[in-house]
Amino acid sequence: MDRIISWIAGAVFVFLYIPIAAVIVYSFNASEVGYRFDGLTLRWYAELFGDRMLGDALRTSLVVGLAAAVLSTIIGLLSAYGLVRFRVRGRAVFLAAILIPLIVPEIVLGVSLLTIFSSAGIPTGYATLVLGHVVITLPLSTLVLVGAMSTLDPSLGEAAADLGASPWQTFARVILPLLRPSLMAAFLLSFATSFSNIVVSTFTSGVGTTTLPLRIYSTLRTGLTPELNALGTLLVLATLGLILVVGVSQMRRILAGPPTPAA
Amino acid sequence: MNTRHRAVGAVLAVGVLSALTACASGAGTDSAGGGSSSLSIYAWAGEIPDSVISGFEKETGITVTVDTFDSNETMISKLAAGNSGYDIVEPSQYAVQLLVDRNLVAQIDKSKLEGFDNLAEKFVDPSFDPDNAHAIPWAWGTTGILYNQACTGKEITGWADMWDPAYSGKIYMLDNMLSAYIAGLQVEGLSATTTSQDDIEKATQKLIEQKPLLAGYNSQNYADLVGSGDACIAEAYSGTTAAKAVMANPDVHYIIPEEGGTLWTDSFSVVEGTSNTDAAYKWLNYTLRPEVAALLTDDASLASTNAGALELVKDQSLVSNPAIYAPADSLTKSEFIVDPGAALSYFQDGWTRLRAS
Asked: How many angstroms separate the Cα of A244 from the Cα of each of A62, A65, A147, B9?
């Protein structure tokens, strides 16, 4: 029975990752058409590095993603702290209001945001992009952090207070470190959502601030080239690299054992 | 503070700083645009080659920012919201009419244009833009048929072949309402630009009749499917993708159907209310030059509307590729697809019924 389950699990993983493997393999395809493999070449990588517009779009996406994820995580943390810790009147309403962008179709959000920005006279650009992305990532980070805060053992905070720590010290030196994995999760989830977002970005982007998914989506009409496979491969490698770095530091921490009293 | 806090603090600081500098540089270039030192273009991806942009920047010293959209509808809604910040847009022919109806594009001052006579006759005073009052055509193409002769076994001549049960399961139509109706209307001998409800209904019935034979509605990778032989025949747009498919596989051919087919044109228009009119007209004049227009074919594999550009194209095999430049005699019955206006609702109703059937 265990073997069958592990076979099925293996098959599911293969199914999930074959498209990614195909993207990487075809990034070296010498053929101009996608259905044939004509030999190996690095020409698409050369084209990618020379493509100014794609590079600009990537930079825009990274900057907006980082900014939106940071803002979203901070606001989410503060909301979670307030919602879980204190008996706020209208708590359920507040939570529901934060979660509304999850349910409302993105195109409705996008059009409404564009209308608001243009009525308020805010020119579309980085600011509107970040604000738009915060709207759609805030529910995610709030949910993650509310869940994490709810599982925190309240007696730890009380113990810290008991030992003379001020509320700020309790927050900074007891709560935050305990929440670190969840903060990381909320940040990465928000970043990933913002980075891959198309619909809201379409309406909130401005002159010179086209994001990467928008740029790729707009090339559908004239045909996708393996240059995008090269970009995909580099993004996969960057993600793997990031995970490796984080994983290595985690391993070191585990191997080093719990911190000594002097730290 | 221990190293972990410092690391987190550093990452946050870097993130915020880069966001701020990006905002600052973004705002900087926007506000510096006051005179004619910058130009913002909103266009289709792949239709303005880098060589054209860098040539323009070098000659005039004006910084060009090109943003791309995926559909005319996105572009129109961005402009309609106001304060888009764009100076030049590149609408398709029916989108020009929609933009004019909403007063989103300015009237072109012919006295400021140089080289307008370089445009091919077909694109001067077209049906969708009388007297070229609002748009200067740049690129054009056709909607036709891409087929694989090894798969079909014979030469294909028109839309009627796409209703042939012999190819059942290997036929693709474009996933675009107006494009699909081109086939449905023209195969019945009706005009692709009709606004008559009866005509549209006849076409809907014909398309519903075709649906069981189709492998699907596909606007993304039909060229690959035809090229590999997975599909025999597909409704297709001319241009880069079709051209690549034709060049890569000698069995693949692109034809304009004998019933007529249609033409599409992407033109440059000046956005209403822009302050960069000088730069905008410099761009229009630059792209009207035959040697610049020839770059569209050489670097982007698209057909240029410029009559003088044909002989200046470096790679002449692109000029003789019917998937880029359709031969003139095949275009005698081709029409421009225009905005159906009020008749749009008949198309939409028919399309909804077709997709649900």
From this structure: 20, 21, 27, 21
